[in-house]
Amino acid sequence: MDYYFVNPHATPNFAHSTHMMIPNPSSEFILSDYLMLDDICIDHHDQESRSQSTESLEKVTFNDVNQEFNDATSKNNNIKYKNGIKRNKGEAGQKIAFRTRSELEIMDDGYKWRKYGKKSVKNSPNLRNYYKCSSVGCNVKKRVERDRDDSSYVITSYEGVHNHEIPFTSHCSQISFVHSDAYN
DNA sequence: CGCATTTGACCTGCGC
DNA sequence: GCGCAGGTCAAATGCG
């Protein structure tokens, strides 16, 4: 089993931003890499920064988190039409979902998002928020909702890959993803 | 005034 | 065919 770690030493703002970081297409990490994993561990080794923040990263049981996402989105991975407009949900392609412990639902991942919907979800007391990347021509979407079982966790799901650079690179550019085979 | 958010309506797929 | 659930749209609203 491969595990991916986020390097907590890359930035002092790690606890706030890094776990929301989604690799760019230019990155050596491709989102589909995540999807091929049975399990993902995004580990947080920086106890100091953890103590300075209300947020922390927890091991992500990818099957659990992503199953719901896939269930909800698989039916959308085909071409839809509305008012004569082609709506190809599948072209975004790559998807990733993970869970973080956070008091904040909106966390800075370096990209600029525009909220376009909010829905209550069956079997969950929490609302699901829908965001689109506000960059022109970028069709990446993000869903954010609190864990139905533990509202202290936030489940974030991304669909698609950004076709542009991160607008705010002050700290995100310093983030590094470290691939470890130590847990194989 | 411009932009982001809110929110009800609408659309689509699925199960019965 | 109908109802339900999830996702999206777009007009209304709020805010800086």
Percentage of helical residues?
Answer: 10-25%
Give the CATH class of one domain.
Answer: Mainly Beta
Alpha-carbon distance between the two ends = 4 Å
Topology pattern, helix = H, strand = E: EHHHEHEEEEEEEE
Could you state the CATH homologous superfamily of one domain?
WRKY domain
Q: How does the major sheet shape up?
A: 6 strands, antiparallel
Rounded average pLDDT: 55
Name the overall outline: globular
| Contiguous uncertain segments of 5+ residues | 1-92, 169-184
List keywords for this structure.
184 residues; alpha+beta; N-terminal domain of TfIIb; 6-stranded antiparallel β-sheet; two-stranded antiparallel sheet; 4 helices; 10 strands; globular; disordered N terminus; disordered C terminus; DNA-binding
